């Protein structure tokens, strides 16, 4: 086509600008790639970043984003070795491989919640001169903190960036279970849909039902707000500690509904788990995993729940007696569950995969790019700040680490769980 001269000039200028932007991006990517080299250890292949760094940090899996890597290589000036061996690319890295990775000299390790961090691994890290282990998770039930203390090794975790994303997956599991989304999806893909039917995949309406929480911390509260505000549900919760902030929020929401001519909602804290189970249409689990919450949901407590109730677990697998849950699902086809975690993860108890009334996903509660990248940054900042002798961060707001300018990150360790026990 023939364009006016000034229009051709504008298009040429635009194309030139785009070409320059593309070149800058390619140059940046090439520069980033040049900072890494492939290497081999006794554990297998690793990718090495900043090879001449004066400290050595081992990372047991490649992590999302690049900010975490900048923290370790630029802020700390460390040599970073990321385990990339194909043998364990999609599986849990065993202790033997972790110990081989640590080798004779290692200052810190950034590892995964699926790994066993106890006397054996902490001993290897201590013998290599290491002083820091950072867990790529907010929970650390895979870490024996007493063993870490005995080896004088600091343990970091990544709180403050998983709240909303975990609450969202909990809400997604709730809705998928209630409305039988997975069953219907499989039905369609199998070519079985022949036309609309009055009783085809009839599920459970959540509007004006009762939501039950076991554990009303940050994630439980965020989930409750999503469900109560979205579905006008009454809330009943069990927690060792009263959550006045959540109760006041729900009171304010109820007052708002009434001001708009709607019926309000209620929020009540009860004294026992059993009270929640007996009245709730949906029960969502949000406790910490310890000796008191192992198999918190067992056959006796499942029997207390409504015949068409929904149980959701995006906390920790062993909170639920999975064998008992399978039996309950098999005996009560109208009972449904949504699970993001499993008792013997990554394995499931026999029979669970065949239960059509169970929605099951592979521990993806934190799997949003913002959250997984933020977790990586916090885990790296724990290492960088601790090795620089910095104290613990006192604020629960982790966004300055994740979203703020790189140069303005707080000069603190985001979260060292055993800081008071460590001799520095």
Descriptive account of the structure:
- 38% of the residues lie in helices and 15% in strands.
- The protein is of the alpha/beta class.
- It has a seven-stranded mixed beta sheet with strand order 1-2-4-3-5-6-7.
- Helix 3 (95-102) runs parallel beside helix 4.
- The protein is globular and about 70 Å long.
- It starts with a helix and ends in a 22-residue tail after the last helix.
Supply the key terms:
single chain, globular, 7-stranded parallel β-sheet, 14 helices, 424 residues, alpha/beta, 7-stranded mixed β-sheet
Briefly summarize what is shown.
The protein has 424 residues and is α/β, with parallel strands linked by helices. Helix content is 38%, strand content 15%.
Q: How is the biggest beta sheet arranged?
A: 7 strands, mixed
Q: How many helix segments?
A: 14
How many strand units? 14
The SS-based structural class is alpha/beta
Q: Ends: how far apart?
A: 72 Å
Relative helix content = 25-40%
Output the radius of gyration.
Answer: 25 Å
Strand content: 5-15%
The strands making up the biggest β-sheet line up spatially as 1-2-4-3-5-6-7
Q: Mean of residue pLDDT?
A: 92
- Overall spatial form: globular
Order of helices and strands: HEEEHEHEHEHEHHEHEHEHEHEHEEHH
Ranges where pLDDT stays below 50 over 5 or more residues in a row are: 1-34
What is the topological layout?
Elements lengths: L4 H30 L1 E6 L2 E6 L5 E5 L7 H9 L2 E6 L11 H8 L5 E4 L7 H9 L4 E4 L9 H6 L3 E3 L6 H16 L2 H9 L20 E5 L3 H14 L2 E5 L5 H16 L7 E3 L3 H7 L2 E4 L13 H4 L7 E4 L8 H10 L4 E4 L18 E3 L8 H19 L11 H4 L22
Parallel strand pairs: 3-4, 3-5, 5-6, 6-7, 8-9, 8-11, 9-10, 11-12, 12-13, 13-14
Antiparallel strand pairs: 1-2, 2-4
Helix pairs in contact: 2-13, 3-4, 6-8
